[in-house]
Amino acid sequence: MKNLTTSKLIKLAHFCLCAFLVINFYSCSRTSDDYTTSNLETEALLEGDLTLATSCQYTIVPEFNNVIFPSRSYTWSAEPSNLVDFTVDPLTFAITIQTLAEGTVTLSLNSDDGQVSSSTQVVIDDENDGILKILAIGNSFSEDALESHFWGLANAQGKQVIVGNMYIGGANLDTHATNASSDSNSYSYRKIDLDGTRTVTSGVSISEAVADENWDYISFQQASYESGLFETFINPLPIVYNAVRSHNSNPCTKYILHKTWAYAQNSTHSGFANYNNDQMTMFNGIIDAYILAENLIPVEMVVPAGTAIQNARTSFLGDGFTSDGYHLNDFGKYIASCTWYETLFGESVIGNSYSPDGMLPLYIELAQQAAHEAVLTPNEITELTDYQDPGGNGILTQPVFINFSTSDNPDGWNAYTGFLEGVAIPNMIYTNGQFTGIEAATTSRFRGVNNTSGAGSTTTDLNMDDSVSKSNFYSHALAWGSNDPIEESIIEFSGFESNDTYEFCFFASRNSVSDNRDTKYTLVGANEQSANLDAANNATNTVCISNVQADANGKIILKVAAGDSNNNGNQFYYINALRISPQ
Predict the structure, then answer these.
(1) How far apart are the first and last CA of the chain?
(2) HEC assignment per residue over 21-67
(3) Are 506 and 573 in contact (CB under 8 A)?
(4) Residue 209 to residue 502: CA distance in whole angstroms
(5) Which residue from 314, 181, 320, 166 is spatially nearest to 237, judged by alpha carbons?
(6) What sign for the dihedral angle of Cα 46, 48, 54, 58?
(7) 544 with 553: CB under 8 angstroms?
(8) I want to staple 338 with a disulfide (CB 3.0 to 4.6 A). Which of 199, 235, 349, 414 is the partner?
(9) pLDDT exceeds 80 at position 486
(10) Residue 207 phi/psi, 5° resolution?
């Protein structure tokens, strides 16, 4: 029943109502005395001859004259019988075939009383080239899930994939429905080829993308802000599906839904108001909406990326999987890709050897487990009880490095991947990957992140990779356009378990500016100390504060603000990198 169209379901409901009335000596259009053999079907109509690929599943629904659903009993047969497997719906006598080998097979439908028969031929070509091809009709959330790590996961297991993403930022199903109906060429078509090369082509229409490859899967998703509102699926999803199918010459394509994730609890996205700014309200809404959406179109599977992210949030990492409260950071993208991998390939992602640069083995293990549990239980949260406490004693014995970036992160650095209040590094690591037991958490937000505006090549004793020096978190002490001023951005370090003293060294850089971007760093623990650094075009200078000691509660507060010499019109201030060393 899952693959019946909405119109068929309506007919079924009508049929059932009629049957009920007949039992009670009524009919939908005449008295029970009028029912004779003339009301039995005399003809079964089948699709014309088909050409299908091997390893393809396809459903043929016969149509019968005189009746909505057949009154006679029927039997299907295949000749030769070794080219296909099939199952039959006992109510509609729809046949779902699974092609097995090349050749031509005749499918015959015969009534058991010998009065009605029909047949069709299926030519089976060996077009299965071993390449899985997936096209997403989506937005930045399909970008997060498919463009960063999915190819790497597949490649690590020797699987060949081609990934397409029809991208419009923030596009909802209404936008896709309008574009699909008019075949608008308003998409950015991102494509990852067999060798992992990613290309971006602008001005592409849905019909062009659908025709570009013999897609195995085409996915649809609702925009994040409407993803938990089922009423926003009802009209546009069937429109998008029917338009895509009309352009698709491959009858073996399977259609899937991408179940996206709830926002971080600290999200400032305006669409969060649809869910009372509550993460669990949004998550539960998404679960319910996608369950219902499966009945709007023939859905082969649902990719539970949102459930995988929610599973991961039960670990010691908490809510740390987005860069801005709704888009995923690199770790979140890896979790989503793991979920797509296991869903599409039907095999566990646990143990997959693909290792993104700078991602700890424990994090990779956690991500794979979160995805695996989501595929097993897609509509419920699975608590990751084995990932609650990674260790660390709160006493620093070697330097710790922090990278303020939402993109690349080198090995041995702690990635501070979000700039909003509530974002944290729950347990910082040493360069060898061991945990310290010390947390860094933002208690007053930065305005944003720029992953490319810092110096691309530096000479400092922090020995930074270019990806670290290029990226900065920034704020502004004066108003900037419609953005209110942020006088200081604050990070709280907690969990120190000794009276030891530490040295904090800072690097900040903003290239291609002609004014002073003086930034003041203030540390408050057992005492208070400050130091200043001009970030303007900086590639060589750092500033350090020594003899820093935690307060009685094991906390050290870092305040980042504009310095007295800052003469920028908005008083922008920055932080790119930080090293904390025991003294």
Answers:
(1) 69
(2) HHHCCCCCCCCHHHCCHHHCCCCEECCCCEEEECCCEEEECCEECCC
(3) no
(4) 56
(5) 181
(6) negative
(7) no
(8) 349
(9) yes
(10) -65, -35
Assigned token pair, 2: 């899952």
Nearest to 144 by CA among 16, 375, 355, 322: 322
Q: Are 328 and 336 in contact (CB under 8 A)?
A: yes
Token duo for residue 219: 């996915």
Helix spans in 24-172 (H): 140-146, 150-156
Q: Does residue 8 carry a pLDDT above 50?
A: no
Backbone angles phi, psi at 12, to 5 degrees: -60, -45
Which residue do the tokens 């942020």 mark? 486
Separation between Cα atoms, residue 391 and residue 99, nearest integer Å: 52
> How far apart are alpha carbons 579 and 544 in whole angstroms?
9
Q: Say if CB 57 and CB 97 are below 8 A apart.
A: yes
Rounded distance, CA 93 to CA 70, Å? Answer: 8
Q: How confident is the model at residue 69 (pLDDT cuts 50, 70, 90)?
A: confident
In 3D space, the residue among 254, 257, 256, 206 whose CA is nearest the CA of residue 230 turns out to be 257
* Calculated CA dihedral for residues 307, 313, 316, 321, nearest 10 degrees: 110
| Nearest by Cα to 364 from 432, 317, 413 | 317
pLDDT at 7 over 50: no
pTM score of the predicted model: 0.82
What string of DSSP letters covers 290-352?
A: HHHHTTTS--SEEE-HHHHHHHHTTSTTTTTTBSSSSSB-HHHHHHHHHHHHHHHH-S--TT-
Count of beta carbons in the 10 Å neighbourhood of residue 319: 20
List CB contacts of 546: < 8 A, sequence separation 6 or more. Answer: 501, 503, 583
Task: Estimate the crossing angle of helix 361-376 against helix 330-345, to 10 degrees.
Answer: 40
ω into 80 cis (within 30 of 0): yes
Nearest-5° Cα angle at 417, 516 to 429: 105
Per the CB < 8 A criterion, the answer to whether 185 and 101 are in contact is: no
Cα 306 from Cα 302, distance rounded (Å): 11
pLDDT tens across 198-218, in order?
Answer: 999 999 999 999 999 999 999
Nearest one of 407, 426, 446 to 313, comparing CA atoms: 426
Q: Residue 583: name the closest of 548, 555, 554 by CA.
A: 548
Q: Are strands 301-303 and 187-192 parallel, antiparallel or unpaired?
A: unpaired
| Separation CA 241–CA 261 (nearest Å) | 22
Calculate what percentage of the chain has a pLDDT beyond 70: 93
| Dihedral angle sign, alpha carbons of residues 227, 228, 234, 235 | negative
